Amino acid sequence: MNAELVAIGSELLGPLRAETNTLWITEQLLEAGVSVAARVTVADELPLIASAFRAALGRADVVIATGGLGPTADDLTREAAAAATGRELRRDPQILARLRERFAHYGRTMSDTNAKQADLVAGAAPLANPRGTAPGQRIEVDGRHLFLLPGPPGEMRPMFEAEVLPRLRAALGPTAVVRRRVLRIASMPEGEVDQVIAPVYSRFDNPKTTILGSPGQVELHLVARGKDADQAEAAIARLGDALHEALPGRIYSEDGRDLPAVVLDLMVARGLTLALAESCTGGLLASRLTEVPGSSRVLERGYVTYSNRAKTEDLGVPPALLEEVGAVSEPVAAAMAEGARARASASIGVGITGIAGPDGGTPEKPVGLVFVAISGAAGSAWRRCLFPGSRGRIRYQASQYALEMLRGGLLGLPLP
Amino acid sequence: MNAELVAIGSELLGPLRAETNTLWITEQLLEAGVSVAARVTVADELPLIASAFRAALGRADVVIATGGLGPTADDLTREAAAAATGRELRRDPQILARLRERFAHYGRTMSDTNAKQADLVAGAAPLANPRGTAPGQRIEVDGRHLFLLPGPPGEMRPMFEAEVLPRLRAALGPTAVVRRRVLRIASMPEGEVDQVIAPVYSRFDNPKTTILGSPGQVELHLVARGKDADQAEAAIARLGDALHEALPGRIYSEDGRDLPAVVLDLMVARGLTLALAESCTGGLLASRLTEVPGSSRVLERGYVTYSNRAKTEDLGVPPALLEEVGAVSEPVAAAMAEGARARASASIGVGITGIAGPDGGTPEKPVGLVFVAISGAAGSAWRRCLFPGSRGRIRYQASQYALEMLRGGLLGLPLP
Prior knowledge:
The structure is a homodimer of 416-residue chains.
Chain A: E1 2-8, H1 21-32, E2 35-42, H2 46-57, E3 62-66, H3 77-85, E4 89-91, H4 93-105, E5 119-121, E6 125-127, E7 136-141, E8 144-149, H5 153-172, E9 177-186, H6 190-201, E10 208-214, E11 217-226, H7 229-246, E12 251-253, H8 259-270, E13 274-278, H9 284-290, E14 299-304, H10 308-315, H11 319-325, H12 330-344, E15 348-354, E16 369-376, E17 379-386, H13 391-411
Parallel strand pairs in A: 1-2, 1-3, 3-8, 13-14, 13-15
Antiparallel strand pairs in A: 4-5, 6-7, 7-8, 9-11, 9-12, 10-11, 15-16, 16-17
Helix pairs in contact in A: 1-5, 2-3, 6-7, 8-13
């Protein structure tokens, strides 16, 4: 079963206003095992709303609309539902009587405009609205369901829970349980990941796989369905295992942890401490690590050595070396890592030096060139990287690469 | 002229992911005088995307789609645009060559899957993407325009500005001119700002004022209309002047620069250098400053002294002082600032120490307590702050407060 959500209201189409009803409904639906195929937000214009309803009823089993049920001239959801389904609007005497009572209860007289809130699409069942004036409506159209709900969340949510969710659950039967898992991979381009895993995930109809790439990171979102939790979890595990096999050692997390947390946990488990020496990343790696609660157990200290003088004074990088090979070089990255480690008496040192741009690049050392070195008791490893993109992206990818090198080193994996 | 926006991506239909591209585009379109009639978010399924395109092209003058232009199997926007317009997809040899070059430049071979990024809908004009691999497309359909833009905001926004907006402006011809200005204020709560300025901005019908608050920062968005640029700019200037008067010295930027850039510019102009000593912010302040191109002219170095030993060894904070008053204290913040300044021979030193949480708080020193100190040739200043919120928010607000203290000190303003 799939659903489409239609949010109605010109005010929702401004730049600053977040539309929250459909997010909340999505969450409820996913939990119940209904996936959302599309979300639409339309202005308060009759042809637009009707067209959105027609399109949604043409492709979804359940269409849930919010908003436009009030008494004012721009509340046009009822009229649009009638137009989209080719039915009449009929004023319901019972609803009208209840509206009048409600107004009387609050000591007010009902204006004529309010009466249109008693209009029902022919064949529709009204949905009670204990928190407000406008009732909702449930309309069956060729075996598909169109629900009209009010816009204010305080009215919409209880109506959804009381009138919509139980009907969907009954229609679904006891079958649909959804489980999801997010697998994360660092420092491997999206295209490369997909080339490796497409033959794997395309064999599976369940779970469904979505790939999300961002600089330095790829996420694989697996969504499985089953008739119970065991079945859904087994489906996730089958694909998960196959993906681990296709990308040996490269999936760093499947429990929601980000890369800094994974690296910190590995170091805590091994009783290791860390010292950082950052040039082009300028504290970004330290900041990402210290964002994780408890990172003080691992991170002894960090140095942001932007100037050559700082590299020499704080990390003991020989001035002759800087002179000879330049600050952006493998030997300097290694000397920074070793200097930080020695100075902090830490188990592991990391050194990062590069050209984040946008200026400062040369043909030999272009913008995006970064050297990352890791130093431990057993020796050093370093890598030359060339990262694409803006200054911010280069810096982020450099920090991500250093973390992935650390993780690989701790687990005895080959360098990425 | 009206527009419809189509955001493509199954990941955007989960409950947790905010879809921000269409909000940003809406803002740009409104400024240009184009209203948005509908926004649609659809899953990565070919019939859904094609149906959304057909519906949108049936009711809007301009349809702008974002996402689904990547190399993976679930990137289906090109195929859907071809299906919706009844045209073929053709592989463009020039685009293919540029893709290969780009991959070669970064030392990678292009996989076969990447080649589909060179597919153009017949009759479409490609839109250059200097920030990424996938070009956009502009397709004319019966006098209507369908633009296909990439999903990553860093690629989408420059393409929208360079390729979409100028075409819409040309089509609209001379209409009302809109000018906007964003005034930024640091380290002052939204409610406090509003209390001071509401009597001011409510006197103005033009510009319209929107207040956007986030931890440590408030933005005032002024949008003015006029029959020409002079008139719109005069309206902005009138309200802008009145707001400066209501908040003397507190508006740090109205030209788009963020606080780190403003502080760095002030220091460059005065020929000053900076050294940082961070404990609870763990490199966040260094990272925010070094995110700005050219920051190396100012930032001599930074120390992330998470441990007491690092505070003593790197910054010369006396062990007896740490013992006596604790690491989270005014004297230690001041000693850190002075130690960093002296060690780096910098003009100004900053020290930050506090409890970012979620653990480690006590009744006397609760989570959120942060001491910020600034040290210069003329002496030191420090402040005790208590920031609300999560670890991330506390750290961000602490870094923001330190920057605002620096700015105030450089301009001779009273401490915030």
